Amino acid sequence: MQVGIPVICVGMIILAFGILFYLQGNSVVGPTSSFMYSNPKWIAYGGFIAVLGMGIAGLGIAVSLRHPKS
Predict the structure, then answer these.
(1) Residue 46 is part of which domain span?
(2) CA neighbours within 13 Å on the CB side: how many for 40?
(3) Out of 8-12, 30-34, 40-44, 53-57, least confident range
(4) What is the sign of the dihedral through the CA atoms of 51, 36, 25 and 20?
(5) Total tally of structural domains belonging to the chain
(6) Is 11 helix (H, G, I), strand (E, B) or coil?
(7) What are 3-15's pLDDT values in tens digits?
(8) Which residues lie below 8 Å from residue 19, measured CB to CB, with a gap of 6+?
(9) What is the DSSP code (8-state) at residue 13?
């Protein structure tokens, strides 16, 4: 089984959550009753989580390119 594809999927999911948290921190999406809504801490957390997701997805892409399907 290829390892790269599941790693890419996990990275993309983490990236999506990071973007969502970033937008909630900036008061763009989400309910106003959320603890993340308009919270500057979640702007930073969301950015970090999004970068982490991009790194994991990049790792999955690198693994996929390193071990091509035979």
Answers:
(1) 4-66
(2) 0
(3) 30-34
(4) positive
(5) 1
(6) helix
(7) 889 999 999 999 9
(8) 46, 50
(9) H
